[in-house]
Amino acid sequence: METDLDFTTYRKTIPSIYKPIPVELLCNLLEINTERQIRNLSDDPILIGFVCQESNYPVFGDNRQRTHISKEGFIIWVLGLDYKMLKEEKQKLFLAYKSNLLKYFFENTLERENIIMEKVTKDVRIKQLEEILNENENYLELMELRASIARIGKMLKSIDTSMTSQLSLFSSFETKKLE
């Protein structure tokens, strides 16, 4: 399966604060074959972009390079795992985990969409009010005055900066004179 998206490049752009998760860790927890899962990840044209080799001494107690997967890739991978390949005593817990993962993902997505919609609604209202106010001469004068005050502030800052640098030259001269 070919894709125009280069997920390998994407993986390299993931900030280092997002520590990848060792594949072996989840495989051991679920009691599934690690080598098979690594092969599945490597064969998947999307998931391969989220996979890397790293050592993880704190987790395993050695510096051996192991296959890790980013948090984004981890979510995709876990949601794609078939619960039937697990031992019966692990299936119920795994299904609950997948369910919670989906719930978390979609609740955050929904919350984000709601916030974006609120922003869009407010932006539209601001544009409407600006159109109405732009017809008012007093509003236009207010906007011109604010722009003038901003320009005056910049000029004052420039003068202050210049005066400060001039005064610092004088103070260094005075210090030398006193010595």
Question: Whole-number radius of gyration?
Answer: 30 Å
Oligomer: single chain
- Helicity range of the residues? over 70%
Count of distinct strands:
3
Q: End-to-end span in angstroms?
A: 80 Å
Element-level helix/strand string: HEHHEHEHHH
Widest sheet: strand order?
Answer: 1-3-2
Overall pLDDT score? 82
- The tally of structural domains comes to 2
Biggest β-sheet description: 3 strands, antiparallel
Total number of helices: 7
Detail the poorly predicted runs: 1-17
The portion of residues forming beta strands comes to 5-15%
**Helix/strand structural class:** mainly alpha
Could you say which overall geometry the principal axes of the C-alpha atoms support?
elongated
Describe the structure.
This protein is mostly helical. It folds into two domains: 7-111, no CATH class; 136-178. Helices cover 70% and strands 7% of the residues. It has seven helices and three strands; from the N terminus they run H-E-H-H-E-H-E-H-H-H. The chain has helices at 7-12, 23-30, 34-43, 57-60, 71-80, 88-133, 137-178; strands spanning 21-22, 51-55, 65-69. A three-stranded antiparallel sheet has the order 1-3-2. The model is unreliable at 1-17 (pLDDT under 50).
Features:
mainly alpha; 3-stranded antiparallel beta sheet; disordered N terminus; 7 helices; elongated; 2 domains; 179 residues; 7% strand; single chain
Helix-strand layout with pairing:
Blueprint: H1 7-12, E1 21-22, H2 23-30, H3 34-43, E2 51-55, H4 57-60, E3 65-69, H5 71-80, H6 88-133, H7 137-178
Antiparallel strand pairs: 1-3, 2-3
